[in-house]
From TrEMBL:
The lineage of its organism: Bacteria, Pseudomonadati, Pseudomonadota, Gammaproteobacteria, Lysobacterales. CDD domains: GRX_PICOT_like (cd03028). It comes from the Bacteria. Residues 16-81 form the Glutaredoxin domain. This is Glutaredoxin. Keywords: 2Fe-2S, Iron, Iron-sulfur, Metal-binding, Redox-active center. NCBIfam families: Grx4 family monothiol glutaredoxin. It comes from Novilysobacter selenitireducens. Signal peptide: none annotated. Pfam families: Glutaredoxin (PF00462).
């Protein structure tokens, strides 16, 4: 399986995927930490994370897969939502909570 197929499999098999530096329990950068916090506050209980620091192939190829240059990267229902700034904007507007509740209630 190619690295792009592995990324696609992660995105396809989990409703909420955050490609981040570190883990949800131990984020390794402030942006990843803030994104995890925003998702938790939005009620995401099914959050799946991929530590790009432990997956150098994914870290190298995810920007090409998503056409998004930075980490973290949030995918909901297979769709790239964006990075930390967009995640925080969606959280502030209440949109992130709505998106998360739709997943968990489906």
């Amino acid at each position: 399986m190619s690295v792009l197929e592995r990324i696609q499999a992660e995105v396809d098999s989990h409703p909420v995927v955050l490609f981040m530096k570190g883990t949800a329990q131990f984020p390794m950068c402030g942006f990843s930490s803030r994104a995890v916090q925003a998702l938790r506050e939005a009620g995401a209980t099914q959050l799946h994370t991929v530590n790009v620091l432990e997956e150098p192939e994914i870290r190298a190829n995810l920007p090409r897969f998503s056409n998004w240059p930075t980490f973290p990267q949030l995918f909901i229902n297979g769709e790239l939502i964006g990075g930390c700034d967009i995640t925080l904007e969606l959280a502030d507007s209440g949109e992130l909570a709505r998106m998360v509740s739709e997943i968990q209630n489906s």
